[in-house]
Amino acid sequence: MKRRELLGGLALGPYSLVVLADQIPPAEHVPASVEEIQRQLDRLTPATGPAGVSARERKMAEITLECDFLVAGGGLAGVCAALAAARHGAKVILVQDRSRLGGNSSSEVKMHVCGSHAIAGWRETGIVEELRIEDAVRNPQRAFEMWDLLLYDKVISERNITLLMDSTLYAAKKKGDRIDEVFVRSDRAETAYRIRAKYFCDATGDCRLGFEAGAEMRTGREPREEFGESLAMDKGDDETLGSSILFTSRLYRRPMPFVAPAWARKINKEHLRTRTIREWDYGYWWIAWGGNKDIIHDNERIRFELLSIVLGVWDYIKNSGEHPESSHWAMDWIGMLPGKRGSRRMVGDHILTQHDLVRGDIEDAVAIGGWPMDDHPPGGFDRSDLKPNVAVRLQEAYNIPFRSLYSRNIANLFMAGRNISCSHVAFTSTRVMATCGAAGQAVGTAAALCLERGVSPRELYRKHVAKLQQALLRDDQTIKNRLNEDPLDAAREAKVTASAEEPGAEASKVVDGCLRDIPKKKDAVVHRWTGRMTKEGAWIELRWDAPRRIGQVQLTFDTGLQRRLMLSASASVTVGQIRAPQPETVKDYRVLAQQNGKWVEVASVKGNYERLRRHRFAAMEADAVRVQVDATNGDDFARVFEVRCYA
């Protein structure tokens, strides 16, 4: 095993302290105006000539920025971390070294977002589901470039986020055991940024921020004896999973010849004996290479080898005579950026292992995972004698602990993504992007709560982890075996009735504390109200023995978590998906509050497709709250998972 302890050094800069309520408030969608966005962008334009960050950067203009929370890495983990922190009031800077957000899910790589959906019914909720549903509605054509735009829109429209694109973090300085400031350069803008923050998150995948700051980390595969994992190696090594390059193709009306370049691999049946070609509109995850190389420093060699294999496989499909039905197909896109699976992992206060995944629960749970423990031979495509992967499926989703999401030796550093604190065996499951996104939401929410409390991540774990869990549940994050216990939620003390209710899906389920159905081997345990729609619609009502002061109603609807839903270029992966509003979701509804026997409409929505909706209004003393469902997106039943009411 290779373990590195790297050191750093510098001075704490000012930050904007966010004052929050006793309990961290719910995340809000308050989009920035055009003028606000323009002002943010103006901050990133040098007002003077070159200032010289160092002799090495003497030709670069310098800008000093300050924030509460800096997120390095704009993949799905970093995007979710930035959004969660910003929605809770933190001033966030998100640094992305490319011109696209989304990491491996972007149009640069085009990998579909995998996660807990591998276990039927365990799709992630929270921000990951918000993005997934938005994409299904806005992007029925399945264009990855539109997914890029969706992520950009979500980030740039959030008034508390400053986005630095095409910008690379290249140095960090510390004061004691805390990061004080980082240095980021944009060669395209000939600008170097000095950024000071209170808290930092490494969502770079390769641990670039942690590496520069001297965070403790590990690489490779542990020996079985270290954690007693049955799936671990007999002897540890420094190898990991290889990277992949994908391609897409489409059918044309005439024959489409293909001539491979001279440097393409010459592929034959022997190379493919453990790899199956059934379709070629999108492929292939099993074209992997470089896990037995230095996955970071050998990037150019890995890119070349992957391209040579991809083109060799396409040449085999087109010209070997084994697939004559491919004659009218032509490749219309090929990735030029290797999609990485593994590299460095940081070490936190807890190292997640195979035992945690199988046990499924842990005290400081903040997110779920559920992808199989899916290991790949480091030699990748070169090991045609081995299966391209060995996947050990899990029976249920598991919880990810907060202690695996912050650094053990850097006091103000979080991590989110494939670099979280885990063994190699656990990493083979946690590495997938929906799981990374859920971890990112947990980290962003935690950073805002740390800011409010003035504590380190470790202190947050020791003193306030229950508040963190409740804040995440309020924001629709799934945490297995955790229920809404928010004392400020007046709905928990209401008597609930409805116009109609199906057996096993009674109205009272909306206040049972669980925001989703729980999949089981035979039938899911239902935690929602289901009422048949009539010409008058359907309604559900919460009533109190004495008036309650209510100024916000929060609703969680059904978005069909039992189905797979992901952007993919593969027709077979898309089968059964609904690239539109999900039929179970309530479409048109009204929220009414009763005061002194009179019903007052406090919110009215048409065309809804979202899962989580919040409605604020002038607080009143209410005897009851009613949700009147006027239409769904196609289902014969109104479905609501949770109703919350706050003053």
Residue windows where pLDDT falls under 50 for at least 5 positions: 1-22
Can you tell me the CATH architecture of the largest domain? 3-Layer(bba) Sandwich
Task: Name the CATH homologous superfamily of the largest domain.
Answer: FAD/NAD(P)-binding domain
Number of domains: 3
- Major sheet, described briefly? 7 strands, mixed
By DSSP, the count of extended strands is 26
Q: Can you characterise this structure?
A:
The protein is 21% helix and 26% strand. It has 647 residues and is α+β, with helices and mostly antiparallel strands. It has 3 domains: 2-220 and 407-469, 3-Layer(bba) Sandwich (FAD/NAD(P)-binding domain); 243-334, no CATH class; 490-646, Sandwich (Jelly Rolls). The strands form 7 sheets. Strands 2, 3, 4, 5, 6, 7 and 19 form a 7-stranded mixed β-sheet that branches. Strands 20, 21, 22, 23, 24, 25 and 26 form a 7-stranded antiparallel β-sheet that branches. Helix 2 (76-87) packs parallel to helix 10 and helix 3 (126-138) packs across helix 4 (144-156). The longest helix has 21 residues, at 299-319. The protein is globular and about 80 Å long. The model is unreliable at 1-22 (pLDDT under 50).
Task: Supply the key terms.
single chain, alpha+beta, FAD/NAD(P)-binding domain, Jelly Rolls, 7-stranded mixed sheet, 26 strands
Layout of strands and helices, then pairs:
Elements: E1 2-4, H1 34-43, E2 61-72, H2 76-87, E3 92-95, H3 126-138, H4 144-156, E4 161-164, E5 168-175, E6 178-186, E7 191-202, H5 208-213, E8 217-219, H6 224-227, E9 243-244, E10 247-251, E11 282-283, E12 288-289, H7 299-319, E13 329-334, E14 344-346, H8 354-359, E15 365-369, E16 373-375, E17 390-392, E18 398-401, E19 413-415, H9 424-430, H10 433-453, H11 457-474, E20 495-498, E21 529-532, E22 538-557, H12 571-574, E23 586-595, E24 598-605, E25 612-632, E26 637-646
Parallel strand pairs: 2-3, 2-7, 3-4, 7-19
Antiparallel strand pairs: 1-8, 5-6, 6-7, 8-14, 9-12, 10-11, 10-13, 15-18, 16-17, 20-22, 21-26, 22-25, 22-26, 23-24, 23-25
